[in-house]
Amino acid sequence: MDIFAEQARVRGSTRVLVALFIAAVLAIVFAVDMLAMLVFGHWHIHRALPYVKPLLSIATIATVVLILGCAWYRIASLSEGGKAVAEDVGGEPVPPDTQDPQLRQLRNVIEEVAIASGTPVPDIYLLPNEPGINAFAAGYSASDAAICVTQGCLDQLNRNELQGVIAHEFSHVLNGDMRLNIRLMGLLYGIMALSVIGRQMVWWNSDSSSYRRNNDDDNRLPVSLLIGIALVVIGSIGYFFGRLIQSAVARSRETLADTSAVQFTRQTIGIAGALKKIAVLTEGSRLQVGNRHEVAHMMFGDVDDFNAWFATHPPLMERIRHLEPWFKEQELTKLEAQMQASSSNSQSDEAGNATEADADQSHAPLEWPGQTTGAAVLAAPAVTTPQAAAPVEQAAQQAAVAQRDVFGRLREAVRQPEPALALMLALAVSRQDDLQSKQKRLIAGAFGDDVQFSVGKFAADAATLPPTSRLPLLSLAYPALKQLPQGRQQTLLETLDTVVSMDPQVDLHDYCLVRLLRMHLREACRPRSAPVDGQKKLPACRDSVALVCAVVAVYGSNDDAAARRAWLLAIDQAFPGAAASWQTLPIEWQVPFDRALDDLDGLMPTAKEIVIQSLLSAIRADGVVTPTEAELLRVICASLHCAVPPQA
């Protein structure tokens, strides 16, 4: 499947559905106006006529202000992004140092998928009292995202299946679904406001009207009670249409999310297995939390037994067959029997089986596309016996194991804010002793001797890792870095800029580290200000495209001739038939490159697709995708707020 084409199709359909949502709001306004006319009709027509126009104007304005005001209030209450949504439905944060085996596995899986997808590790939440299999991702961008799973996911899914569910949610992060999901929550809240007001009026009038009927011969219902009932009806109509549109928006994106999950995990058995278990289990994917319908459109599966109109997801069999076209529904019966037999085992047997499954090769940590040296850090091959291995192979295996051990130590260190800060600085310091000494003095001046000492300890380990391990460590450290006070975050960014600039020749990997860290921390501080899809067309950014392609071509080639050839291929892909003149990349390319990436972030989605495809042309010019090229492409895609193409 062409992921970019599918994203464009989904975005186009979503715009139509949002327009229909606005039409539903207008229908509510019309219904309220009719109610106002009905209430006003108690007056004699010749007395009422002069007041009809101002009455309708007041009713219209009041209704629109009420809906938009409540929607704005709800969206504002979720201004902290994914964290606010997760806590709103009862999610409990998963501690970074948890010792619970299930939670550790959940955290490990999420970290692996984050590295595979080139995104920072999101906040992790658990719905502990939910036996159904479900999950959701929420936030305005990857920088403030949160992933929340139910206890049923941990109890019922094996590691592969959990990995498939998590990868599905990451695709929502990368495909830009989360911002729309939060806005839909706000609009639904605004529409429901009329119904809530109506119910309050009915409740308030119920006792008073009963009292009047017992003490007065006039048994007519008060007008306010009738208005309350009418508002409940109008609010229900609006909610009905809103639910239809909410469901349609969600369904249009689920197939894309399932397909993207396969891109990250490189297999279908995981996510397909999770869907099959939802189909056979009694709890399915249902939720019990009271406000489950408010988040139904962002869940992995349906939160209730909706009919076909209100279902927020395609039918389960349709989703399974999309992943496994050969699957037959009769096989669900066999799976149900196997699960019933398995449920009779003791809890200790289940834990033992899970441990064995985690050690199996099929559950090995993910490798991210284009990764070679760095992949050995996360998933080093099994070490053979010394007798069976040649000396060179044995040395390579021992080096890979050593790198893996170092990465493991650093991985645990970045789970807390202050060690994570020190490690980011350690990754940026030079390996030259004289320059490193100057950089450490600068760090001591900014943060104190304690941080300088920690940087020195981390620097020794960091020096043994391949450069391509820096971005994975940044991804893992990001949740802890977000916990730092904003002033300390700003000092970290300023110090990193100064430390990196002290080197006469800025290393590409240092640049990538600082660029991503700055972008993610700034967006996390102001989630609602995260960039949205731009409106620029490609010709307006020609110079920026040329510079970005030049950086990729130069750092992906061995000589000037190869770089020039790769750049010409990229430019021809972006601007077919246009005249192009190769210019040598300037030594001080970092600042212009930053400006170029910011400029390209304002492109419309279809133009961004062309840019990414052009970069792929440059990367593939020599037939090899190097780790440096893959790392640079991930930084560019993150800066453009779009998913990394599966071919990378």
From TrEMBL:
Query: Where is each Peptidase M48 domain found?
Result: 104-325
Task: Name the InterPro entries for this protein.
Answer: HtpX_protease, Peptidase_M48, TerB-like
Keywords (A to Z) from UniProt: Cell membrane, Hydrolase, Membrane, Metal-binding, Metalloprotease, Protease, Transmembrane, Transmembrane helix, Zinc
List the transmembrane segments.
16-43, 55-73, 184-203, 223-242
- Residues of the region (Disordered) are 336-359
Q: Which GO terms are recorded in the biological process aspect for this UniProt protein?
A: proteolysis
Co-factor requirement: Zn(2+)
Residue stretches of biased makeup (Low complexity): 337-351
The entry's protein name is: Zn-dependent protease
Query: Taxonomy-wise, where does this protein's organism fall, top ranks first?
Result: Bacteria, Pseudomonadati, Pseudomonadota, Gammaproteobacteria, Lysobacterales
